[in-house]
Amino acid sequence: MLGDQKKYVTVDSGNVGEKASYSVEKAEKAPEKKVLTPAADVTVTHHLSSIAEITAGSLMVVGYGIRAKGAVRACAQIKCEDVWVTGTEDKKRGFSFSGAAKVAMLGKTFDQRLFSNTYAILSAVHECGASALLVVDDQAANDELLSLLAYQEGLNIYVPFEGDKTFQLWVQVLPSEELLAEKANYQVEWAKCPVCKLMHDKHAVLSDHGICPTCHGLYRLNSDERIAETFDEGSFEEWNAGIPETDPLSFPDFDALIERTRKKSGLEEAVRCGKASIVGMPVAFCVMEATFMMGSMGTVVGEKITRTVERATAERLPLVIFSASGGARMQEGLCSLMQMAKTSAALKRHSESGNLYISVLTDPTTGGVTASFAMLGDIILAEPKALIGFAGPRVIEQTIGQKLPKGFQRSEFLLEHGFIDGIVERKDLRNRLITILTLHKKDDKSYTDNFNIKKEKSTMAQKKRESIKMITESVKKSAWDRVLASRMNDRPIASDYIDLLFDDFVEFHGDRYFKDDQAIIGGIAAFHGMPVTVIAQEKGHNTKENLEHNFGMPSPDGYRKALRLMKQAEKFNRPVICFVDTPGAFCGLEAEERGQGEAIARNLFEMSSLRTPILSIVIGEGGSGGALALAVADEVWMMENAVYSILSPEGYASILWKDSKRAKEAAGAMKMTAKDLKEMGIVKKVFFEPEKYTTDTLPKITEKMDKEIVKFLAEKTKITKEQLVDERYNFFSNGY
User: Across the strands, what pairs with 218?
Assistant: First the structure.
């Protein structure tokens, strides 16, 4: 921000400027109320008539509504006729108050935010020739930029005296000495917000990550601004500059258009590429320039991106591409279209070499860029409310003859429909990239070498006591009791385990096809410093959360999201840890339409040969194929009161005995408890639960679980991938 502002207000207001020393004096023509003023200055509280007398030009009332009306009436009472009041063209009549008030236009259409916008206010000042501002809008009264620029222009600013409802007493507002010293001869660079369309000081906007101070929308950053915002200072090394332009179609005046665009933008082309670091981690990157022919992708753009991807592959560097484009460059015809294939092919090789690619979608990302490299990231992030789509909104509306719904093709729309991993606020983007890059950092060391595995020594007496406890606990609860326990509302859910067991969990969304199914959550995290992929069937702690997560019953989209994350884990050699807690896969019309059976089958198919360790822990209900789709693992563990079965006891009783009331009897017959399944060899470990198993008692369980996961990873990461897959195959093919 510009700095601290000095404002002189009443003693009892509680709003005293922090940067000045004060003395107490009586206000001129004021009642016995006291004001704070700088020790070195005269009193700055004035009667309205005094302001009118010393003001060479007109007065301008800044604000609207009752307070603005009151200020205008006060001016009329002292017979001051050269008074203007701020307004807009479509609200002009509403501001034509009694007296001599004239309207200084802030804009065409009424917007409350205009009355505190510095650019609009100063434009109105220049229109009416005002020498003093009577500011009744609170936000404008506290605007540091307005006070600074007004001071530089010799424009006095006054705010109403605290408690004076007649608007006859006013207090002068001045910028602080610190602000004046810091911003001597300050030059404003005005820029229009692409969202609210209001003008702001670009320097101040950029100091706050390019976020509009009025609507909190995002300004479009050029490459220099994006590089400064994202990467370590001084680390930028440009690649692939100076590639000569081509004109494959001999398009009329194309060369002249390129030259004009270069002069206007100060850029060579619609993308800049290179290498930089983020907290010391080297990264190859491309930043697209929406200011250069709308970021259109021609042959040079495609060539620069392709060369960057190829070099990143050769140097085994992670790659980050910031997309901002209107699509293919029309003036280059099919040659532009070919860049889609070229960049995609280069990314395929980069991916097959085991390298990370993060795609960051900014406003706008459309056309051929969307249909190529922008949507091919291992991880796809987007800025809030960015326009992202293949065909532009106008083209779609003209094609279908319909008005598009609000929010269509915005980041939030894509997140809901499963096309991106997440939306990240610009102020958080660098830190999110740091977390992701850290979890993908290539390191030859074995993380498990750092695991402190302590061999637990148990006496025969201890083992005997543990055995007796197990038997005793089993007698205490029937199978049906454990079914009911697995369904308890206060039972810990998957996200509770994730919070306690892992660090730096970054959730990824979407199946990349249709939807983000919140019945399954997944992402990457650190386990004792080791990168892992975590996937879980999520329920809720209350009805609202259960509805949000569909009571832990995944749709096909959820299983496809899980599989996408598993394949990503395989690519980056991350172990996969799954938490199973579902009554079963969702059985509904839409689920069947989108291939519920195929989605489950595909998970079983791929998990059987996934070349990375898989651990599945049944923490609640393990219902049918919906649970198995996350449980084709090297080992399956269970909580003591969890259940795992072909279907629910109610369904089992209905099918076999045509009587769902015999569910209790069915639970016993199904051998669905942790103890039963451990004896059958399906389950490897069972974790005993406290009598009252809630989030309050969960830490004791996760402490034990943490130690067992350490042992599992230490064992499974030391064998070859081939051996790992063979052992998993043999377990399922030979055991049952």
Answer: 211
Residue 240 pLDDT level (bands cut at 50, 70, 90):
very high
User: Is the bond preceding residue 248 a cis peptide, omega within 30 degrees?
Assistant: no
Name the amino acid, one letter, at 442: K
Q: Is residue 353 part of a domain?
A: yes
Sign of CA dihedral 229, 233, 235, 239: positive
Using the predicted structure, report yes or no on whether residue 426 has a pLDDT greater than 90.
Answer: yes
The answer to whether 101 touches 147, Cβ cutoff 8 Å, is: no
Which residues span the domain enclosing 610? 480-735
494 and 388 fall within a common domain? no
- Rounded to an integer, what is the distance from CA 193 to the centroid of its chain? 20
Q: Minimum mean pLDDT among 11-25, 268-282, 317-331, 677-691: which range?
A: 11-25
Instruction: Say if residues 234 and 228 touch (Cβ distance below 8 Å).
Output: no
Beta-carbon contacts of 632 under 8 Å, excluding residues fewer than 6 positions away, are: 603, 604, 607, 608, 614, 616, 728, 732
Residue 699 has pLDDT above 70, yes or no: yes
Strands 83-88 and 58-62 come out as: parallel
Token representation of residue 137: 């809008």
| CA-closest candidate to residue 437, choices 526, 323, 354, 318 | 318
- Of 415, 439, 463, which closes a domain? 439
* C-alpha distances out from residue 237 to 232, 267, 288, 290, 313, Å: 11, 16, 16, 21, 17
Shared-domain flag, residues 693 and 617: yes
Q: Which residues on neighbouring strands pair with residue 102, listed in sequence order?
A: 84
Boundary residue ending a domain (413, 439, 465): 439
- Identify whether residues 497 and 593 lie together within a single domain: yes
Cα 324 from Cα 223, distance rounded (Å): 10
Based on the fold, state whether residues 563 and 703 are members of the same structural domain. Answer: yes
The percent of residues above 90 in pLDDT, for the chain, comes to: 74
In a domain, 447, yes or no: no
Number of domains making up the chain: 3
Q: For the domain that residue 308 is a member of, what is the CATH number? A: 3.90.226.10
pLDDT for the residue 333: 93
CATH number at residue 35: 3.40.50.20
Task: Compute CA distances 429 → 212, 422, 440, 507, 589, whole Å.
Answer: 17, 11, 17, 14, 39
DSSP letter, residue 113? G
CB 283, CB 276: distance < 8 Å:
yes
CA distance 382 to 362: 6
Token couple for 593: 């339409």
520 lies in the same domain as 664: yes
Question: For residues 415 and 557, what is the distance between their CA atoms, to the nearest angstrom?
Answer: 13
Q: How far is CA 375 from CA 340, 418, 420, 512, in A?
A: 11, 12, 8, 9
409/520 same-domain check: no
Q: Hey, what are 665's tokens?
A: 């009897």
Q: For 572-602, what is each residue's pLDDT tens digit?
A: 999 999 999 999 999 999 999 999 999 999 9
CA end-to-end distance (rounded Å), the chain: 68
17-24, long-range: CB < 8 A, 24+ apart: 17/176, 19/176, 19/177, 19/178, 20/176, 20/177
In a domain? residue 86: yes
Rounded to an integer, the average pLDDT of 644-660 is 90
- Is residue 723 in a domain? yes
* pLDDT tier, 90 (very low <50, low <70, confident <90, very high otherwise): confident
Residues 582 and 661 in one domain: yes
Determine how many CB atoms are found less than 10 A away from the CB of residue 41: 15
**Residue-level pLDDT at 176:** 86
- 281 CB contacts (<8 Å, ≥6 apart)? 318, 434, 437, 438, 441
Residue 550, pLDDT > 50, answer yes
The Cβ of residue 223 has, within 10 Å, a number of other Cβ atoms equal to 25
| Closest to 681 measured CA to CA, from 614, 607, 735 | 735
